[in-house]
Structure formats: structure tokens, C-alpha cells
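Journal club prep, notes for RB
We'll compare a predicted complex against what the paper describes. Inputs for the adenosine-5'-diphosphate case:
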Amino acid sequence: MNIILLGPPGAGKGTQAERLVAERGMVQLSTGDMLRAAVASGTPTGLKAKAVMEAGELVSDEIVSGIIGEKLDTLSAETGVIFDGYPRTAAQAESLDALLAARRRRLDHVIELAVDEDALVARITGRFTCATCGAGYHDTFKQPKEAGVCDACGSTTFKRRPDDNEATVRTRLAEYRNKTAPILPIYEVRGLVHRVDGMADMADVTKAIAAVLGE
Ligand code: ADP
Ligand code: ADP
Ligand code: ZN
């Protein structure tokens, strides 16, 4: 199974992908995570992407489609894939079609996480992750069970993204509105889009997605 999680920054894509990985053994391909890893290790791609990401703008279609293609080639044919944060433009949607076709993969579902823009700034400015395993948390909406200790791995170091500040979030939301939301009709005409209420509690969002994906 190959699915896309589509929604603005803070919609809950990473949160839900984390659960699908744990419960279904799918693999999450997050272009944001891959780009942050490239920035951290100072690769040529990372050097190109750093300032663009800090500004909240989109990295070039060639770069992101290139890294997605490379990752797909490391997976066995049976492994289910969750595309998280990709595609984000019409050109990326086209590239994804070609990348999947070349590997005899089919796109099964596009899950649209629908959220109020007003809620997103609070979600993003409160977001943090485990520095060791990447598990996601929130200052208000999802604190670790024991303060300062990761539920998943017991680590006590956490990190926040440099672009998770209010000014950058406004730019990222505008990028979503102008470049990403317009790709939904491409998938709607193919009957692939399922709209899920992303404002619901995390567990209810998980249930709604499970209902779409089936057993
Ligand atoms: P969020 O989880 O908040 O939606 P991401 O982690 O997906 O954010 O992306 C962080 C940043 O990485 C984006 O603001 C953008 O600069 C870059 N990026 C990630 N995915 C893509 C993509 N598919 N196309 C272009 N830029 C991307
Ligand atoms: P995205 O990957 O779409 O940018 P995340 O999954 O990282 O979004 O979620 C952004 C922040 O909001 C995280 O801190 C997460 O814990 C929190 N969050 C995710 N889903 C919900 C929800 N349904 N209700 C409240 N907070 C949420
Ligand atoms: Zn952890």
C-alpha cells in the first residue's frame, strides 16, 4: 500500500505517520526529515536547502523528487510507503506518478488532514521531538508521560526545529495554500482523496485513517 498524507504544517502528518509505522510496519518517507538530515550532515543538498527551509519556502522540486526516488530504491516491493510532506507542488505530484510507475507501485489513498489555520500556529510553536528516536510531542497537547523522558525510548534530550516559529509558519502556510492545496484536485478526479478531520483528538484521527485504510 502506498499513501500520501497531505495537510498544512502542523496538521498532524508526522504524528499519524509515526502510528502507521508502529501499527502497520509501513515506512514513512518524510522529505522534511530527509532534508533536515542532509542539512545536519552538510551534504551538497543540505547546503542548498538550509536557507530555503529557514525561510519557510519550498526546496526545489528536483531536489525533493531526487531524494524520494533514492529512498524508494532502498525498499523492497512489499513495503508499504507513507509519503509525508511530499508531493507539495503539481510538478512533484507528476514526478511521484513517474517514480511509482517505474517501480510498479500504485498510489492507493491520499489522506487529507483538514485543520483550521488558526490552530496551526499553536501546534507548531509547541512542537518538539525526541532527539534520539524522533518521537513527536507537544507542550500542551502531547507531553511525555514522565516529564523530560521520551515515552518511546527513555531519552532525556529533546529538540525543536529552527523553522517552528510564528513568522516562518506564516510563510509555510502561504506556501501550502498557494502551491500544495491546488494539487488536491489532481487526486480527487482519480477518486483517491479521503478528507479526515485533523482537528479531532489524535486518537480519533488515527481511527478515521484506519477506517480508510481497512484491516
Ligand atoms: P511540516 O511537518 O511542518 O509540514 P516539513 O518537515 O514537511 O514541515 O518541511 C519542512 C521544510 O522542508 C519545508 O518548509 C520546506 O522548506 C522543506 N520541504 C519539505 N518537504 C518538501 C517538499 N516536498 N518540497 C519542497 N520543500 C520541502
Ligand atoms: P505535521 O507533520 O503535519 O507538520 P505534526 O504531526 O508534527 O504535524 O504535529 C504538529 C504538532 O501538533 C505536534 O507537536 C503534535 O504533537 C501536535 N498534534 C498532532 N496532531 C494533533 C491533534 N490531533 N490534536 C492536537 N495536537 C496535535
Ligand atoms: Zn525517544
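Talking point for the session: The first strand starts at residue 2 and ends at 6.
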